């Protein structure tokens, strides 16, 4: 038979749960007991953890009587810091670990206060902050770098330069001259190359070089053109000898004013 006199489902709580199985309905005067959920413990001083089905078919008022358990306190790692995202070490909180400049992290960057058996603990060991060191960067053909060492500290610098060439053409350095130790075994860029990079002598019909006259044109050398009177320049007036021995952008053209350029 249907109970007209009955309370609905007992209230639900974030930190505590019903002891035993819930019943389909409860008669006035019936009582339900709650226990703390995993990861929580009774508040102190203790608060009531039971509710009664009242004569008006509503449950007596009850509030969360449990509080998150605490994980062990974490000190800062040597040469680093711990930031508690929720501002606490309670169940469900996170700890983010970062290292001071010049150090890198070994281990988990984020650890969580989580259930461990019938208690709570951190999901991982506190990571460590190890000093950043770089191994000797790469040797290059036709060039060298200073200062040569077995090991470099964080932010130390090496400088590359090309050797004198014993042929008719000088070597050009393509890439970065300076490399910096930026992270553990990581330099700011790859070593450069030293090689002969030579562009053809640039000739523009009906035009002339106005700056950058030279006998030979090597990597990164720049030339500026101007067209003769009555001629119009198409393309870029300034060109540079590129790393693969071609002019960048391509040579301009000078066409008679009023004529279409092909």
Automatic annotation (TrEMBL):
<feature type="domain" description="Sushi">
    <location>
        <begin position="5"/>
        <end position="68"/>
    </location>
</feature>
<keyword id="KW-1015">Disulfide bond</keyword>
<keyword id="KW-0732">Signal</keyword>
<feature type="domain" description="Sushi">
    <location>
        <begin position="197"/>
        <end position="256"/>
    </location>
</feature>
<keyword id="KW-0768">Sushi</keyword>
<dbReference type="InterPro" id="IPR051277">
    <property type="entry name" value="SEZ6_CSMD_C4BPB_Regulators"/>
</dbReference>
<dbReference type="InterPro" id="IPR000436">
    <property type="entry name" value="Sushi_SCR_CCP_dom"/>
</dbReference>
<dbReference type="InterPro" id="IPR035976">
    <property type="entry name" value="Sushi/SCR/CCP_sf"/>
</dbReference>
<protein>
    <submittedName>
        <fullName>Membrane cofactor protein</fullName>
    </submittedName>
</protein>
<feature type="domain" description="Sushi">
    <location>
        <begin position="69"/>
        <end position="131"/>
    </location>
</feature>
<keyword id="KW-0325">Glycoprotein</keyword>
<keyword id="KW-0677">Repeat</keyword>
<feature type="disulfide bond">
    <location>
        <begin position="227"/>
        <end position="254"/>
    </location>
</feature>
<feature type="domain" description="Sushi">
    <location>
        <begin position="132"/>
        <end position="196"/>
    </location>
</feature>
<dbReference type="Pfam" id="PF00084">
    <property type="entry name" value="Sushi"/>
</dbReference>
């Amino acid at each position: 038979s249907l109970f007209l006199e009955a309370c609905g489902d007992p209230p639900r709580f974030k930190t505590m749960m019903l002891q035993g199985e819930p019943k389909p309905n409860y008669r006035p005067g019936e009582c339900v007991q709650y226990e703390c959920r995993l990861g929580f413990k009774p508040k102190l001083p203790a608060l009531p953890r039971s509710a009664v089905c009242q004569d008006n078919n509503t449950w007596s008022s009850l509030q969360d009587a449990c509080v998150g358990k605490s994980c062990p306190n974490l000190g800062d790692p040597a040469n680093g810091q711990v930031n508690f995202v929720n501002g606490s070490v309670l169940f469900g909180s996170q700890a983010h670990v970062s290292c001071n400049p010049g150090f890198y992290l070994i281990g988990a960057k984020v650890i969580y206060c989580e259930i461990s058996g019938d208690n709570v603990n951190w999901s991982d060991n506190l990571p460590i902050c190890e000093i950043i060191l770089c191994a000797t960067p790469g040797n290059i053909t036709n060039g060298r770098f200073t200062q040569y060492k077995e090991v470099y500290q964080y932010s130390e610098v090496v400088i590359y330069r090309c050797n004198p060439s014993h042929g008719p053409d000088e070597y050009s350095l393509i890439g970065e001259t300076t490399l910096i130790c930026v992270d553990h075994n990581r330099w700011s860029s790859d070593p450069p190359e030293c090689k002969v990079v030579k562009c053809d002598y640039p000739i523009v019909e009906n035009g002339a070089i106005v700056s950058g006259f030279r006998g030979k044109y090597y990597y990164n050398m720049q030339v500026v053109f101007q067209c003769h009177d009555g001629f119009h320049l198409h393309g870029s007036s300034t060109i540079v000898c590129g790393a693969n021995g071609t002019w960048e952008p391509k040579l301009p053209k000078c066409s008679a004013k009023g004529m279409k350029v092909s």
